[in-house]
Design goal:
seven-stranded mixed sheet; 24% strand; alpha/beta; Rossmann fold; globular
Length: 320
């Protein structure tokens, strides 16, 4: 059995390749070539944690895997990441476990990759300014995913902890070779942005409709529970909204659930699933003026497809 570390995963899964793999996974999901039940969630109230299991099988990829992931918001107190994850990759012919991957980096990369896919299909072709709200691990791969598909020339970063945003600016400026500026507020960060990525765990909106210019695209990836909300309801009400999966979004995404409860939208306001857009069944952006939103809660096909790709690449000898 193969055991791969986060460092192995990062080396074997460059962002541009991850975007291609994830895009193909969403296409196959739309075509009915993937089996993916809703994730199983167990709340660990005693330790303020959430434990999840995310299985998926993608037929033509021969990808069979389950992610075991936990979300513990108090982990940083102990020097541990908020999200801890592993993926168990199995042989679909026999069910035998063939690999276990540390999946903290995999989760971050595949989440950045899905925003890359959404940005490719929903953002303006000439998008040049990116805003990142939330400068943690996910904020880093969000920038990488967007920069893989659009000619970004400048990034504005905001975090409630300014020192974290300053560290982000230094690190990502060097990594991407772009100017990364620290904003004094979320409003300052998004005012001129062509693409916005929100990567927070906020329970109250961090981006408001009045701050946005026409034609902006937003990847909202941080809030993944019904009580979390990163975008104010008016943004959702006025935007073309694409989700990773309707069933998952309506069960888990506060950015969709809360505006429905407020009477701002109905379930029918969701324009499309990402797979519909990727496959060409529905067009993505149709005007330079429309506001588009991609709301993601994260799907098991993202983990299964990328983990399978990493293992196959390692076995091919390219990982040595």
């Amino acid at each position: 059995m193969i055991i791969l570390s986060d460092l192995d995963v990062e080396r074997l899964l460059p962002m541009k390749e991850a975007v291609e793999v994830v895009e193909d996974a969403f296409r196959k999901l739309y075509e009915g070539k993937a089996k993916m039940p809703l994730r199983i969630q167990v709340n660990i109230e005693r330790y303020k944690g959430v434990f999840l299991l995310m299985p998926a099988y993608i037929d033509e990829m021969d990808a069979l895997a389950t992610k075991v992931v936990s979300f513990y918001p108090e982990n940083p107190k102990f020097g541990l990441p908020t999200v801890v994850a592993h993926v168990v990759v199995c042989d679909p012919k026999t069910g035998r476990v063939i690999a276990i991957l540390e999946a903290n980096r995999l989760t971050a990369i595949r989440t950045g990759a899905v925003s890359g896919v959404a940005t490719k299909h929903l953002a303006r072709e000439d998008a040049e300014i990116l805003a990142i709200i939330g400068c943690g691990v996910q904020g880093r791969t969000q920038a990488m995913g967007v920069c893989a598909v659009r000619p970004i020339k400048e990034i504005w970063a905001y975090d409630i902890a300014r020192e974290r945003a300053e560290r982000y600016a230094r690190e990502m400026g060097d990594k991407l070779g772009l100017p990364v500026k620290v904003a004094a507020s979320a409003e300052e960060a998004v005012r001129k942005a062509d693409v916005i990525c929100t990567a927070t765990t906020s329970k109250t909106p961090v981006v408001k409709r009045g701050w946005l210019k026409a034609g902006v695209h937003i990847n909202a990836i941080g809030a993944f529970r019904p009580d979390m909300q990163e975008l104010d309801g008016q943004i959702i009400a006025e935007a073309k909204v694409v989700v990773d999966q309707r069933e998952a979004a309506l069960a888990e995404a506060g950015d969709i659930i809360i505006p429905i409860k407020q009477g701002l939208i109905t379930e029918e306001h969701i324009y499309a699933e990402l797979g519909e857009v990727v496959s060409g069944a529905k067009p993505g952006r149709t005007s330079d003026e429309e506001i588009t939103v991609f709301k993601s809660v994260g799907l098991a096909i993202q983990d299964a497809s990328t983990a399978n790709y990493v293992v196959r690449k390692f076995l091919s000898g390219l990982g040595h």
